[in-house]
Structure formats: structure tokens, C-alpha cells
Write a structure and sequence with these properties.
Length: 143
């Protein structure tokens, strides 16, 4: 059974912001002649790798709500230049909008059980609304 990770998406105000950042970083890698892989670097290396790679995703918390997810492709531990153990969470660059689920701020990442994860948003749902309108509706408690 798949296990997921939930993480705060710092610096993005919307799914569109995150998508633009991903596109920018991939284009930078292409221009530098590097393999255009998308990853997120984290200090803590997950222990439950097999469960995470069995269909797991990284769920992004944007502005206090889980709003989207990316499928986990691999987890690559490494030691950085300062001798600190870290890992790259290798991600499919495609963002999948989810139903919004409120989340309080936290540090690092947390495991997220499949039964606790929000469902993917069907086409034409709130994902079809403009980002500013979604944020305003969420602030009013209507999403």
C-alpha cells in the first residue's frame, strides 16, 4: 500500500506559481546541458522508502492547504559538501491538483497515509477557478 509525504511549499502562492518554478528550473537544467530531472532536496531521509515508491506522492501545502501533489519517482540519499546527509526526492514534474485540505504549518516533511490524503480534483472543480479566487474562497472557509 502506498505511503505519501506532505511538505510545505514555501515561496509559492498558488499551484500556478509552483508550476512556473518547476518549468523554470527544468529549462535551466536543459540550457546547462544537464538531465532535466525535478527533485526536492531535504535533510531527513525517509526510512519507509519501499512504501513511498509503491505509488506514493509528495503533497504540497500552499498557503495553508494541501493543493496539489507530484508522484515520487525515486529517493536518492547523498552527502553534501559540508558532510550533511540529505536526499533528493525525485518527482514527476506534472502537478496534480487535489481537493484542498487545511494544514497547519510544520517543519520538514511528514508521512501521509493514503486514507488521509485528499482526493485528486476532477476537471472542472475548484482547480478550474482562478488562483486568486481559490485563495479568497479558502480564506473565507468555503473551500
Amino acid at each position: 500500500m502506498a505511503l505519501h509525504i506532505v511538505k510545505l511549499c514555501v515561496g509559492c502562492d498558488s499551484i500556478e506559481d509552483l508550476a512556473a518554478w518547476i518549468d523554470f528550473r527544468l529549462e535551466e537544467k536543459r540550457a546547462a546541458g544537464e538531465l532535466p530531472e525535478q527533485f526536492h532536496t531535504t535533510r531527513m531521509v525517509p526510512k519507509r522508502v519501499d512504501e513511498l515508491l509503491d505509488g506514493g506522492s509528495l503533497y504540497w501545502v500552499i498557503k495553508g492547504n494541501i493543493q496539489c501533489r507530484q508522484r515520487l519517482l525515486d529517493i536518492r540519499p547523498f552527502t553534501d559538501s559540508e558532510g550533511i546527509h540529505r536526499c533528493h526526492l525525485m518527482l514527476e514534474p506534472k502537478l496534480v491538483p487535489t481537493r484542498w485540505q487545511p494544514r497547519r504549518a510544520f517543519q520538514g516533511w511528514r508521512y501521509l497515509k493514503t486514507e488521509e490524503a485528499p482526493a485528486d480534483e476532477a476537471n472542472g472543480g475548484t482547480a478550474a477557478l482562478p488562483a486568486e479566487l481559490r485563495q479568497e474562497l479558502a480564506a473565507l472557509g468555503l473551500l
